[in-house]
Specification:
Layout (H helix, E strand, L loop, with lengths): L1 E4 L5 H14 L11 H4 L9 E7 L2 E10 L8 E8 L8 H15 L4 E8 L3 H9 L3 E12 L3 E11 L1
Parallel strand pairs: 4-5
Antiparallel strand pairs: 1-2, 2-3, 3-4, 5-7, 6-7
Length: 160
């Protein structure tokens, strides 16, 4: 597996991953009825970056990263990650997250902030904690999980 910058030819596979993850309604706050056009917001413009994790021509996962907020908040980065169902549990998410953290640190950001990590997404929460992110707070019941009902959304941060 290797991680490289997203190219337009990756879009059909990236869109498939986004569509599936969002329709699962378990890990992302995006509208599950989002259209392919709406999903294009995944592709970051500079100073942000969108990447894919690939094995041969197959896209296993994708990440987007950039400033968390504009203006006075632009010194803190953020990132989001999605992994194809068949590639989960195989280190793709970890590789993408490590890439994003390294990119942000080398780009001069002061830290990385995740704004809405679904509390019940234990794989992601555990991964982020293993990479020195901390939960700064949790908004109780801010996410409606299809099987668990209302669960919290964590705000997580790592200082560089």
């Amino acid at each position: 597996m290797r991680i490289r910058e997203f190219t337009e030819s990756d879009w059909p596979q990236v869109w498939g991953i986004i569509r599936d993850v969002v329709q699962e309604r378990e890990t992302f706050v995006y509208d599950p009825d989002m259209t392919e056009t709406d999903a294009r917001m995944w592709v970051e413009q500079p100073p942000g970056l969108t990447v894919v994790a690939v094995e041969g021509e197959r896209v296993l996962g994708t990440a987007k990263m950039g400033p968390n907020r504009p203006g006075p908040g632009s010194h803190v980065s953020t990132a989001s990650f999605m992994v194809a169902a068949g590639a989960r549990g195989k280190g793709v998410g970890r590789a993408l997250c490590e890439f994003a953290v390294d990119w942000a640190e080398k780009s001069g950001y002061a830290g990385m902030q995740f704004n809405a990590v679904v509390e019940s997404n234990h794989a992601a929460v555990d991964l982020y904690k293993s990479l020195d992110f901390v939960v700064l707070g949790t908004v109780p019941g801010a996410f409606i999980h299809p099987g668990l009902g209302p669960v919290g959304l964590h705000l997580m941060y790592r200082r560089f």
